[in-house]
Amino acid sequence: MKGIILAGGSGTRLYPLTKSISKQILPVYDKPMIYYPLSVLMLANIKNILIISTPRDILLFERLLGNGKQLGINIKYKIQEKPNGIAECFLIGKKFIGNDNVALILGDNIFYGNGFSKVLEDSVDYFQNFKLKKSNDGGAMIFGYPVKNPEDYGIVEFDENNKVISLAEKPAKPKSNFAVPGLYFYDNTVIKKAEILKPSERNELEITSINELYLSCNRLKVKTLGRGMNWFDTGTPKGLMEAANFVEAIQNRQGFYIACLEEIAYTKGWITKKELTEIIDKLKNCDYKKYLESLMLLPI
Fold first, then answer.
1. What is its EC number (predicted)?
2. Which of 51, 29, 43 is nearest to 107 (CA)?
3. Are residues 198 and 174 in contact, defined by beta-carbon separation less than 8 angstroms?
């Protein structure tokens, strides 16, 4: 499975913070925002990743992450010329996706919770089983996260068997309190579906429209993320502050880092102890370096 991080947009909800820099470069406590969605794809064992951003910001991500070799992964980059909608990423990334299935995560979404890695791995395995059967028709998988104010989100309605009934974008009268966060898994037919989309009233290719196409042929699945799971949309000043405070609290109380890319790569065996040592040696004296040094003592 390939992975795409959409790190585009103009970040108007965060102005003036984003007037001269991408919001996905902004810090969420001690790391750039893009570390968090990238860590989600890595936890899902996805090693081929495409980052899509604006003409202004794409070089910042290349300078920050390079080709991913230092993490044992492969990162490529593409430009989204204008904010034409989330679903455009499947057209921009058509050649990158090729004949594979694809996971999409929005660059301003942060997930954290016990057992989340297993949820991700199971989701990838679900689509891998279809690929082993030489079938690309694995459908689509979205997630449902309970919120107090469903009218502010895209909402998924489903029955007691988790069968999706309907989708709605910021409904005045929500039929569900489960928001759809910015993490999606699709089979390879998502490319053809994106190709037939027409722009919405906002003149964008909507991700909800893609999901509705899967729903219309009964190929849309939903997994719920309940108690113990945390999801943040950091596209607003409030969301950014809440996420930063959460990360600070977890890391300082438990001693475990959230979205430490080198830790994920090392514990998964994608980089060796020697390669981790080389990364550490290049860092200046900081808490992040000290944390990486502590990983050297772990039995891997």
1. 2.7.7.24
2. 51
3. no
- What letters, b where the CB count within 10 A reaches 16 and e where it falls short, cover 95-134? ebbeeebbbbbbbbbbbbeeebeebbeebbebbeebbeee
Residues 198, 200: Cα–Cα separation, whole Å? 6
* Distance from the Cα of residue 120 to its chain's centroid: 11
- What predicted TM-score, i.e. pTM, was given to this entire model? 0.96
From CA 206, how far away is CA 99, in angstroms rounded?
Answer: 22
Q: How far apart are CA 213 and CA 197, in angstroms?
A: 9
Structure tokens at 299: 């039995």
What span, in angstroms and rounded, lies between the C-alpha atoms of 168 and 209? Answer: 10
Helix pair angle (273-282, 287-295), 10° resolution: 160
User: CA 140, CA 101: separation in Å to the nearest integer?
Assistant: 10
Q: Which two tokens stand for residue 16?
A: 């003036």
What fold characterizes domain 2-142+182-257? Answer: Spore Coat Polysaccharide Biosynthesis Protein SpsA; Chain A (3.90.550)
Report the alpha-carbon distance of residue 24 to residue 124 in Å, rounded: 25
123 φψ region: left (φ > 0), alpha (ψ -120 to 50), beta (else): alpha
Mind giving me the DSSP string for 176-229?
-SEE--SEEEE-TTHHHHHHT----TTSS--HHHHHHHHHHTT-EEEEE--TTE
Domain boundaries, the chain: 2-142+182-257
Q: Is the torsion defined by CA of 16, 20, 23, 29 positive or negative?
A: negative
